[in-house]
Amino acid sequence: MQIEVINPATKAVFRTLESTDHLGLDSSVAKAKVAFEMWRKKTDAERTAALMAVADAIEVAAPELAQIVVAEQGKPLPLAQMEVGGAAAWTRYNASLELKPEVIEDSAERYVEVRREPLGVVASITPWNWPLMIAVWHIMPALKVGNSVVVKPSSLTPVNTIKLAEIINQHTVPNLVQVVLGGREIGEPLVQHKDIKKLVFTGSTGVGKHLAKIAAADLKKATLELGGNDAGIVLASADVDQIAMKVFMTSFLNMGQTCACLKRLYVHRSKYEALSNALADIAAQQVVGNGMDAGVTFGPVQNQKQYDSVRAMIDEAKAAGAEVIEPNLPEGLDGYFIAPTLVKDPHHTLPVVCDEQFGPVLPIIPFDSVEEVMEHAIHEEFALGGSVWGEPGDELDWVVDQLDSGTVWVNNHAEVLPHVPFGGNKSSGLGVEFGIEGLLEYTVRKVVNRAK
Hints:
This protein is of the alpha/beta class. The chain contains 15 helices and 20 strands. Helix 2 packs across helix 6. It starts with a strand and ends with a strand. It comes from Maribrevibacterium harenarium.
């Protein structure tokens, strides 16, 4: 079956690829298994050097990779260039990590140490929003500790992952990273495959729970980074002029198509109109268009399904009486474009508030007391990230303590760093990514207990 990769800015076909059948899946896993046996025998220093070479090669291929990302994902070229640069930097960071044996006891009776060893073949399933970066997040820690990977990118954005795998295999061992293409008809058998030892998945909570059940049938390890509906709480002490741009950028990063974006903005009533107006001014200044065009700051929604979902949320909020601030689009755009849209004071039961929008729309809701706002800010299902904005003090610290998300940012949002653990609570995830904690997720523990 053919997969047509669509440019979301033009709706034209960017690339046509063949999907993977079950024989192809078996072949890919078998190749990765052979590569694993070669790769695991490399010393840590050899793997580090190889991955550093991969990072260098990513930078050499940066112009091509960035253009691929724009063509299949839609983000403006400067943001695509940032994604490629981040992929190289994240690769270098993972290459630099070291897992040394942990000595538990060294006494007259015994010497006990804990070693970490690779699992085998890892299954990676990646989304369409940050396709290159998230592939690197999945693949590089797995390779660093000696695993091989079979990755299934989103069928909407597979081309950059194919290029990434080519680069990796050129600088490590043949077939170390295999790419399979398709939807659930290939994703489910990948997770079920007897030679897959771990699943790492980034995507929706519903799909993540389904894949986790499949993995659990064979007690396979799983790391899941799932949906979020992050709340940002702006206190009365916040300086609107100082925070407005950062609030906007962390809410509309990648056209709002980022798991850790600020997705619900609660603002103390004393600052509500000032911040709403400041955000509206910034939204009106965005240049919406094809990401390859000079000066464009805001690209399309990535696909028709997501466009329809976001559009429906905006229209429903408008029909319910909320004030919707939506800048006009330039004439002549044919893609899945929605300008950065603000929804003022929507009811908390509307989908634009209670569901993850994953697109360029931000509900802004006033509150009078922090005790009141916490009743709505803490989500029953999601707990990926949250933030509080204001001056240091007891009130800000109280909000930090109350938020139950995996990450709480203060006067910031959506910042992820390679050395800082990241993961969601509740239905927003399982396990953790990044840093040493993330690296451990790709290993199995071995305790060596030597009698003396």
